Amino acid sequence: MVRQQKGKVRWCMSRDIQRMVDIESACIENPWEAEDFEICLRSKNSNGFVVEYDGEVVGHLMFTHSPGRFGLVSVVVHPSKRRMGLGSKMVRHLLKKMDKVDGPAFTEVMVSDRQLESHQFFKSLGFLATGIKHHHFGPDHDGYRFRLKKLSIDEYGLEVVS
Asked: Would you say residue 57 has pLDDT above 90?
């Protein structure tokens, strides 16, 4: 019997959108709708990954790219599959892609002031809080900008090279 690899990261496809909507709804105060994902995936400067666990999509990472920068738009893992390294695996997958193209000097993400677990997650990956944007997510709902400088990826994890 062939066993599905745990934590397999792959490119997001349109067939994944409904599952991504379901995961967002289970995790996020203001979840994306199917149309939001469709718009992001149609854009030439946006893309995404999903992570599968035992053959089921359990998380996704959406990102934008432009010269000199990658922007993480959304990193979400279903609550029942958190703390298993799946979110980290998706972020590392993106960073490996970034490293291969000798691309952007940094990656950044804007995180809600209400998502302290997300703050800790990005800090654990080496991101630093570099600013606050007041009312970014709405009235009385600030955003914290986390930034990670260009990295060299090795088999042991992440190592800052700048």
From this structure: yes
Does 130 map to a domain? yes
* Whole-structure pTM value: 0.79
Which secondary structure element, helix H or strand E, spans residue 66, and what is its range?
A: strand 56-66
Q: Which helix (H) or strand (E) holds 76?
A: strand 69-77
Check residue 150 and give its pLDDT.
61
**79 DSSP assignment:** G
Q: Which H or E element spans position 88?
A: helix 86-100
- In a domain? residue 32: yes
Q: DSSP secondary-structure letter at 161?
A: -
How far is the C-alpha of 150 from the C-alpha of 104, rounded, in Å?
7
The answer to whether position 1 is within a domain reads: no
Residue numbers of the domain that contains 139 = 8-160
Contacts of 72 (CB under 8 A, 6+ apart): 61, 62, 63, 91, 94, 107, 108, 109
CA distances from 45 to 5, 33, 48, 57, 134 (A): 30, 19, 11, 23, 26
Q: What is the CATH number of the domain that holds 37?
A: 3.40.630.30
